[in-house]
Amino acid sequence: MNRFGGRGRGISNNGRGSIKGKQPGGALRKITWDIRSLEPLRKDFYVEHPAVRNRSKDEVCKFRESAEITVKGDNVPNPIQYFEEGNFPPYVLEVIQKQGYSQPTAIQAQGWPIALSGKDLVAIAQTGSGKTLGYILPAIVHIIHQPRLSNGDGPVALILAPTRELAQQIQEVANSFGESAGVRNTCIFGGAPKGPQAHDLERGVEICIATPGRLIDFLERGTTNLCRCTYLVLDEADRMLDMGFEPQIRKIIEQIRPDRQVLMWSATWPKEVRALAEDFLTDYTHLNIGSLTLSANHNIIQIIDVCQEFEKDVKLYRLLQEIGNEKENKTIIFVETKRKVDDITRNIRRDGWQALSIHGDKNQQERDHVLQEFKSGRTPILIATDVAARGLDVDDVKYVINFDYPSSSEDYIHRIGRTGRRKQTGTAYAFFTSHNMKHAGDLIEVLKEAGQNINPRLTEMAELAKSGNYGNRSGKRFVGNDRSNGRRGHSDNRGRGCSSRGRGGSSTRGGNSAYRDRDRGDRRGGGARGGGRFGSRDGSSGGSRFGSSSNRDGGNFGNNFKNRQPGERLRKPRWDMSTLQPFRKDFYQPHPNVTTRNPHVVEAYRSDKEITVKGTDIPGPNIFFEEGGFPDYVLNEIRRQGFGEPTAIQAQGWPIALSGRDMVGIAQTGSGKTLAYILPAIVHINHQPRLNRNDGPIALILAPTRELAQQIQQVASDFGVSSQVRNTCIFGGAPKGPQARDLERGVEICIATPGRLIDFLERGTTNLRRCTYLVLDEADRMLDMGFEPQIRKIVEQIRPDRQTLMWSATWPKEVRNLAEEFLTDYIQINIGSLQLAANHNILQIVDVCEEYEKEGKLMKLLEEISNEPENKTIIFVETKRKVDDITRAINRYGWQAIGIHGDKSQQERDYVLNQFRSSRSAILVATDVAARGLGGMGGGSYSSKTFSQNSYGGASGGGSGGYQNGGGYGGNGGGGGGGGGGGGGSNYRQQNGY
Known about the structure:
By secondary structure, this protein is α/β, with parallel strands linked by helices.
C-alpha cells in the first residue's frame, strides 16, 4: 500500500517499498574523519575596512544599540555600516547597487564581518531581517576562495531550510548574486520530480539549497555527497526542529567535515536549538537582532484559568466538550510527565473521544504513526510532553491546552506556538495553579506584550511571589473558575474587547460567562459520554467531527444534523414590497470639487490609479477625503488614524456606495476595501430608524474566515464608536454563548462567517428583517470554501430592495453568476490590471504530449507523487464521464481515488469532500464544478498537486492551500491549456527551480 492508501502493486504503506519503518538516513554510514588527511581549509577572508577599524568603542555601542544588536562571544568584529566596508568583490557590490539596496540591515551589518572571519555564528532574527543576504554573500566569498569542483564533487556550501517555499526564496537570492561570480546552485525539495534535481547535483553545483528529507534521499542514493562541503547554513533552525527534522539534520552534519564553518539562523532560541548549537558549532558568536523580551504570537488568544490542582481534570473534560462543538477543533494538550500523558489519554478515550499520546518513551515509528494520525485529522486530540513540540509543524491546530504549566515562559511560548500558524488565529488555554506561582510575573509580561487582558488573580499571585508570602495561603486564595481572555475585556459592547463577547469574560466575572451554557445538552449536542463533535465510541451519542469508531458514519456529521443541508430549517420569506417599511439608501451629495472637475482630469486619475468602471450613471471619484461628504466625526477619525488620501477603491467606491447603488469591487487584499464599505455602512445606519427589541442588524458583512472577520471588526469598532454604532463578530471556533448575547442585545453591524450565522438564524437567535445593507467580502474565496449554499440561504432572508456590495479578488463565472442573481443594476469597479495572473506560489509544469499518452503519463506522475509525504492531489478533467472513467482506472491501479462532478447530489459532494479533506482518499478527480467547494482543505495545511487533463484557467489554483506552495501540472494534447512553466523538457524544469 502506498501513501495514497491503495493496495497497488506491492508498494509499502509509506510509499517507499522496502524502506517502510526506516529511520531517516538509516542507510548513511557515519564518516570517521581524520583531520590530518583532509585538504587544508581557509575560512577567514575578512579584511577590516579602515573606517570600521577607526570607529570608537562608543560609536560602535551606539550603532548596536540603535539597531537593537546584541552580541555575545570572543573577539567579535565591529559591525560595518555601509556596503563598501564589507570588502566584497566589485561584482557583488554592482549587484547590490543594481538591486537598489541603500544600506545593510542590522543582521547584515554585524553578521557579515563574523561570517567572513570564518567564525561559527548563531543569529536570532525574525523573518524579513535580511538574513538570507547575511549568509549568501559570505558563502560566495567562501566558495571563490576554494579549489574548483572536480567531477563527482558535491557542493561547497549547503543551506538547509525547512520548507520548499523558503528554499526557493533563498535560491532567488543565490541566483542574483552568484551569477556574476560563476557560482552555480540548485534547489532540492520534496513535492517535485527528483530527476531534474538529481541532474543538477550530478553536473556539480557550488551551492545546494535543500530541505532535509529530500537531501537525505539523494545522499542515500549516492546522487551527491558532502565531502567538499565546508560552509553549512541552518536557516530557520527552530522551525526545522519543530517539523521533526532533527534526526535528518544530525545525519547530514555527520557527512560534513568537522572543521566546517556553520551558521545557524533562528527566530527563537528554545532549548532544542541551543542543544543543536552546542553539539555542532565551535566557539560560536551569538548575535540577536531586536528586543530580548519574550513575545508570543499575537494571532493567539491566550486564556489563563487560575484554579486548583484537583479541579484540572474536570475543567479539561468541560473544555473538550465545548471545543468539540466547533468545526475546526484539532487540539494539543501538554502535560508534565510521561505517566500523566498516558493517564489523561486513557481518561479522554474512556469518555469517548479519539485521542493519542506522544512522549519520550515512544520510538520513532510510534511517533511517526501518532503524528500522521494527528496531522490527517483522524485523531484530533494529541496529549504530549514537551518532546512532542519537536515534530509538530501542523498548520491547522486550533487549540493548545496547557494542562500543566511548563517550567519556563520560553517553553510556554514555544508550546502555544503550535497554534496560530500561517497568519491563522488560535486559542491557547493554561491551567495555572499555586504551584506555578513563581512564573506568574513572567507570564504577565508575555500577556502584556501580546495585548492580552490580565487575570487579576494572576496579578495577585505575581505580587505574592515577589513578596515571598505565598506558603499555605495559596490553596485558599486561588479557587474557582477564573479565566482571563487576553484579547477581550473592556465594557464597551461595540469593541473587539467587550466583556460580553470575551472568551472567558472580563476580569470581574472571572471567566464563567463564556462557558455558562457548556453543560447544556440542548446547546452542545453532546452527551455524558463526550458526544459533541470530538467523537464517541457510541454512534448514537452524538457523532463527531473528530471521528468515531461507529461503523455507520464515523461520527463525521454529528448528532441529528447528519446529512442536513446548510440552512434547511430556514423558511424562505415571501416578500411583499408593499408592506415593507420604506427606507433610504442614497445619501451622496457630490462635493463642488467633484462636480466641477474636468472629465479629462477624472480619466487621468482613473488611469493613474488603474481604476476601471463599468455601469450606468457612475459618479466621479473622490480624490480627497473631504470630498466624500462624510460627517465630521468620521473625518475626525480618518485624520486621527493618519490616512493621507483615499486609496483607489475608496476614491471610486465611496460615491457609488453612498449613492445606494449595488456594486462589485474587484481588488486585491491591502487595497483599502474594508474602509470602502465600512464608512458608507455607518452613514447608512445613522439614517435608519433605531433598533427595537429583537431587531437584527442593519448592516451584514459576510466574510470567509474568522481572521478576516476580526480584522473587519477592528475597523468597524474604530470608526463606529463615535456615532455609537455597535457591532459584533460571529464565527466558528469560538464559544457561541457570548456571540449569541451580543446578537440578542442588538447590534447595528454584524460581521459573520456564513456557517455560524446560519446556525444562529436557525436557532432564532437573530434575524435579518432589518438588514438593508449587505456586504459579501472575498466572495470568490467564500465560494471556493463551499459557502455558496449558505450565502444563498442568508440572502433569501434579506429584503430584496437591500443595497448589496460584493468584493472579490477575482471575477470567475461563479462570482459573476452570484452577482447577476443578487445585485440590481450594479456598477463594477476593477482596481489594477485586467490581465489574468496565476498565483506565484504555484509551481506550474506543462507537459506537451499526445492525447493517447495522457493516461500513461498520469499513472507515472501519480506513482512519483505517492512517494512524497504530502501528496493530496486534485485531477481536473473535462467531462463527467471522463471523471468516472479515470477514477475507476486509478482505483484499478491500487490507489484510493474518489470522483466529483455535476451529477453528484449535495450529500454525495459533502461525503466526497470530507473523504478528501480527511485524507482517507488522497486523490480527487473532478470537473470544474468541484472548484466551488475546494477551499481550506485542512486549513491550508498541506501542499496539493493539481493535474489538469485538459485546458484550464483556474484549475491550478486548487494547488495552494493557505500560504503553502502547490504544484500545478497541465497536460494537453495541443500544449496550450496548462497555464504553467516547466513541463515539456528538462530546461523548462530547471528554470522553475528544479
